[in-house]
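Incident log, structure service

09:12 report received: a user says their structure output differs between two submissions of the same chain.
09:20 pulled the input from the user's history:
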Amino acid sequence: MGCSRNCGLITGAVIGAVLAVFGGILMPVGDIVIESAIKKEVVLEEGTVAYKNWIKADIPVYRQIWIFDVQNPEEVAVNSSNIKLKQKGPYTYRVRYLAKENITHDHENNTVSFIEPNGAIFVPSLSAGTENDTVTVLNMAVVAAPQLYPSAFVQSVLNSLIKKSKSSMFQRRTVKELLWGYKDPFLSLVPYPIDATVGLFYPYNNTADGVFRVFTGKDNVSKVGIIDSYKGQKRMSAWESYCGMINGTEGASFAPFLDKNRALQIFAPDICRSITLVFGGEINLKGITVFRFVLPSKAFASPVQNPDNTCFCIEKVISNNCTYYGVLDVSKCNEGKPVYVSLPHFLYASPEVHSTIEGLHPNPEEHSTYLDVEPITGFTLQFAKRLQVNLLVKPAKKIEALKKLKKLYLVPLIWINETASIDEKNAEIFRNKVTANINLLGLVEMVLLIVGGIMFVVFMISYCACKSKKAK
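09:34 re-ran on a clean worker, output below:
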């Protein structure tokens, strides 16, 4: 009787020890299995989960556009008053709904090349008005002309064409015209062949961006999605030194097993540069834990604040010593047009930039850029890319429409929020295929460790107690 009891207690202790050891072994082994499976599925090759979503995103992407309507055009043109703005919008378009094209695999170098077709569909249900709404905005052709052609003689000729076309510093346009293009009356009179169509996104539909070449991650998963070249170039010619380097991915995905202390890099062709995002916190997105990476305030800072931005400073800047901050001159990659980009409402911008503009209300919650990335897979499940397009306006003595101006203006035209978020259906699929399995494995590991440990301790104490009682 005593032997069978002692044997039972020893057996229970051994079983507990085995369970605890098995749970301990399962931790690294399970992690290796999961890591191997994740690494296999994030590679950009046919048959993987990442490849299917990479070719054509399951998550709908929307581009919301707010237009700055000028409230006092006559006061500005005649008296050089501050410009009073009122934003109108959003006007929402579905974008990035077309699959990548011309996909070519280079298995030797583990890269894949493609072009990104452009398309935009107006979504009335998500818009504050119609594309036929009218707004008062800068006449982009008129204000850009003297900066594109600094010669006094050429400006005199252009001035006669501007007057003949009855063009002025400001104009009334429909939303559709402003965004997607209209025949400019001034440019239509220019005697040499020129495309007289002007629009902030013209041309867009039926065009494509690229060619992009990115790493598949087949040989090194840490390189998955990283852009190797853009339009055949390894760097952007607009910038000198490291500022011209093409770094990072498109932003749809990153290497798996993210480290929150390591910044993410994205290449943004529309602003001709790469940008860096830093960890901003963890959030729960439809039951999935994601890391939020945000664009820091120093992204468009002046070299005085951020020495890393020195090579983004070019000669034709608002201030001679390039000390204004919060704006980026992208004229070099816009055919010399005086285009500047910033965060919406000049968020984080220098007070001097705000000094000639009224009606802006910067708010970090509404106007900052962020990506929500699931850290295990590296997939971006939600993002908001926010950017403002501005035009630099200078006085021009030879252009009557601009000669009464007494100061520089950096005039906001529109701000954009390109956004997407995983829907409930895809979130449930993700939770079931990724999160649930990882959580289940972790639960099994903990149960085995805890139950096994408790069994071992309890049975060993009981065994020792019985041995002690028998000895007495």
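09:41 both user submissions now match this output. Likely a transient worker issue. Closing.
09:42 reviewer note: The chain has two domains: 2-37+447-471, 60-97+120-205+235-422. The chain has a mean pLDDT of 87.
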